[in-house]
Amino acid sequence: MNMTEPVTFFIIEGLKDKYMILFAIFLTIYVLILGGNSMIIYLVRTDPKLNSPMYFFLHHLSFCDMIYTSTSIPNMLSGFLVDVKTISKMGCFAQMYIFLSMTVVGRGLLTVMAFDRYLAICHPLRYASIMTRRIRYLLIFLAWLFGWFIPFSALILALPLPFCGPNIVKHIFCDHTSVVRLACTDTTRNSIVSLTFALFGIISTFLLILASYICIGKAISKMGSAERLKAAATCVSHLIVVCISYVSASCVYISYRVATFDPDVRLIIAVLYSVLTPLLNPFIYSLRNKELQDALKRAFCRYSAASHAVRKTVPSISS
User: What separation in angstroms does the CA of 213 have from each of 55, 105, 135, 170?
Assistant: First the structure.
């Protein structure tokens, strides 16, 4: 590309070698993510017995995970099949903003779910009066607003940057850092602002979740053994998801700051981070939650009964 010509599109250059085995693996992972999270959304929206705040928040987390992975994985999969993957400048920035927003929204929803568990365990008698329908929607609105707000400054600062070549993004999609470093001007301010807001989004949600579980731990320590086990069981799934999310994020952060990491390995780590939590969420909540398992059985029974009724009403060919 001519170095004096302004960039109007970017070339997404992901993994250098197009390993078809990776294509098959990540395609399978993507199908499992869509299937598992769609299952949770369907069960929560159709089963009256799942009409509680915890499942309401889980429903939104599953929806967020589907958008989050759909922003990055299809681009990566197409990169395995074509030699050159191009995207317009505005499309690149839109992809960047949606991905960053969904990352923060997910953290916000995990924080809201921790607050819900705090109220249920530490204030059980007041739980129903506090966690009203209005409060549920307010918490969801704040989580989504928080997610859309945090990366907004980084986007606004990146949009007017001059890009005059090269236009090759060393990532599987339009990652903020990979795109901004292509600008033909000083981007120190962009790096400082984006890092500041990113750390604020991660650290603030982590501290709120940590504070909730410290209060939960104190409340559980004062209960009897039976009540303690019952209360802890309602938090285990969420706590596992939180640990996986923040530990994997730390691994990605470390990999980007270790110069000896192979670029392809660093990309694979980043991709695994982006798919790990959305992939495991449905399995963790389903395998450890009897209510979800029972709802799945009821849904299967309804489907079987409906299929049987349809077969009985459809006339046979011989008749």
Answer: 19, 20, 21, 39
